[in-house]
Amino acid sequence: MPANAASSSPSVERNAPEERLLNLVVALMATEQGLTKDAILASVSGYREQGEAGASKDALEKMFERDKENLRGLGVPIETIGDRLDPDDLRQARYRIPTSEYALPADITFTPAEVAVLTLAGEVWSQSSLSADARSGLRKIRALGIDVDEPIIGYSPRISQREASFAPLQRAIEQCRVVTFPYLKPGESAPRVRTVRPLALVEYEARWHVFGIDVDADADRTFLLSRIAGDVKVTRTGFDPALRDGAGERALAGLAAVASRQSALLEVNPGTEAALRLHRRGTPAEQGIRVPYVDVHIFADELASYGPEVRVVEPAELRDQVVRRLRTALKVHEGAR
């Protein structure tokens, strides 16, 4: 191997990948208009040296795509500015990192203990469940550079979402794209395809819902994620981002209003898991506790899971649904013997 080839190779390696990622972040934060892919490959250190060393444009473009996804996976908000008329045409797209994503208002400060609590709260959520706003807030907190020197807790709990529909719905909300999905309501024999402008994902009664505008009905609707019976398809049709303003609050208010109009009278064995969970949502009554609920079928699923720890006094419809589930479980176990 020629001496000059041996000496030039290490300089290329030193630029990859950590230094190249850092250079890319600095370049994308330094531009307000954004940089095209060609400008990045020609000017950002790490790509430029690879090109000068003989790397093909196709290889450099693949390297940039991997770097971009790696940075996004780390929580760096790389914004793609494409053609408004055709958002999927990225041939002349420009890329940037909005500096506002790393800046907190000047009048907000945190003590080390407060930063520790906020950081722990951010770590509770798995990355796929953390919303874009929450990720942005966590980045800003970490950018303060405050040393966290007060112990809060010895471990971090983790919360993850099980519904496969969560991630594509979250992405569609962030991108303001219409979605379609098959949805199975109780009593229906087959799911129906819904076309929705998704505006917010909200958690209520320990279950996730997507709130949005049903395009066919031209009305607000709230869908339970566990009833989505297939893949969520994100379409190319967009909608006005202003529709998302206050959507989460409206969704929760609507669910709370439904729950306020119906409640169950329950007898719950003290000291049980059922007592721990239900007493937090209920109010004392002469015969047990009264617990509001949104959906009779979903609430019946929960109550049946407690087995003999709960007895439904009223309403009769809820009691019948719980009994039906318990009898079904009994038949399954008897058949397995």
Brief characterization of the structure:
This protein is an alpha+beta fold and about 325 residues long.
Question: Layout of SSEs?
Answer:
Elements (H helix, E strand, L loop, with lengths): L2 H12 L3 H12 L5 E2 H7 L3 H6 L4 H17 L5 E3 L12 E3 L15 H13 L7 H11 L23 H10 L1 E7 L8 E13 L2 E8 L4 E6 L8 E6 L8 H14 L2 E6 L4 H7 L3 E3 L2 E5 L3 H10 L4 E5 L1 H20 L2
Antiparallel strand pairs: 1-3, 2-3, 4-5, 4-8, 5-6, 6-7, 9-11, 9-12, 10-11
Helix pairs in contact: 6-7, 11-12
Helix and strand element order: HHEHHHEEHHHEEEEEHEHEEHEH
List the domain count as a whole number: 4
Helix % is 40-55%
Q: Calculate Rg over CA atoms.
A: 26 Å
Name the CATH architecture of the largest domain: Orthogonal Bundle
The assembly state of the depicted protein chains is single chain
Proportion of β residues?
15-25%
Largest beta-sheet characterization: 5 strands, antiparallel
CATH homologous superfamily identity of the largest domain? Winged helix-like DNA-binding domain superfamily/Winged helix DNA-binding domain
Instruction: Tell me the distance between the termini.
Output: 73 Å
CATH fold-level topology of the largest domain: Arc Repressor Mutant, subunit A
Strand neighbour order, sheet with most strands: 7-6-5-4-8
Which structural category fits the helices and strands?
alpha+beta
Structural summary, described in words:
The structure is a single chain. The protein contains 12 helices and 12 strands. The chain has 337 residues and is of the alpha+beta class. The chain folds into 4 domains: 3-99, Arc Repressor Mutant, subunit A (Orthogonal Bundle), CATH 1.10.10.10; 103-160, no CATH class; 173-245; 262-335, no CATH class. The radius of gyration is 26 Å and the shape is elongated. Residues 1-16 and 146-160 have low confidence and may be disordered.
